[in-house]
Amino acid sequence: VSGGTLLLGSASTQSGGIDVSTGATLQYAGGGTHMVNAGSSFTGTGTVGISGGTVNMTAATTLGAGINQTGGTLTGVGDVTVNGPFSWTGGTVSGTGALTVNGVLTMPSFGARTLDGRTLTHTNASGASTILGTSGGEINLDNGAVLRNAPGAVLNVNIASGTSLIDNDNG
User: Fold this and answer.
1) What is the mean pLDDT of the chain?
2) Which burial class, exposed, middle or buried, applies to 17 when counting CB atoms under 10 A from its CB (0-12, 13-18, 19+)?
3) What tens digit of pLDDT does each residue of 83-92 get?
């Protein structure tokens, strides 16, 4: 994807490399399932967007590009490593594989997010990663999910007084 947005709106299957150039977006949307199979890779410094449907990582996958998840589901048995930024405003991250965010992790104050069964490990030490909590901006940890800040990583958590930010094992 050299520029603009490539919108995958229904269902797709990937088993090769995709380069997402700076300023470009590969957007998973719609109600279908997008299979990201063994041999898949995401390079470049653009953005992989998830706004609808299900993105199923069936094998270990590393993303050089960042992720912007506003909805939909990122799932699968494969470990997912995000070396670019990960902005998570809505949707579900589920499955059995690990999710490691080496880039800046941002969870703005709006939007409901669910981490279901997966461990999300944040490793970025830059001090730019932030979780902001206000009414309606919660993180649900379901079915043994873990939100982990690795040793040496810096994750700023700012919540409004009286706000419940994390609901542990809601379902």
Assistant:
1) 88
2) exposed
3) 999 999 999 9
Cα–Cα distance between 66 and 82 in angstroms, integer? 7
Identify whether the C-beta of residue 53 lies closer than 8 Å to the C-beta of residue 71.
no
Provide the pLDDT for residue 166. Answer: 58
Residues 65 and 2: their CA atoms lie apart, in Å, by 13
pLDDT tens-digit map of 50-73 = 999 999 999 999 998 899 999 999
* CA nearest neighbour of 68 among 20, 127, 16, 125: 20
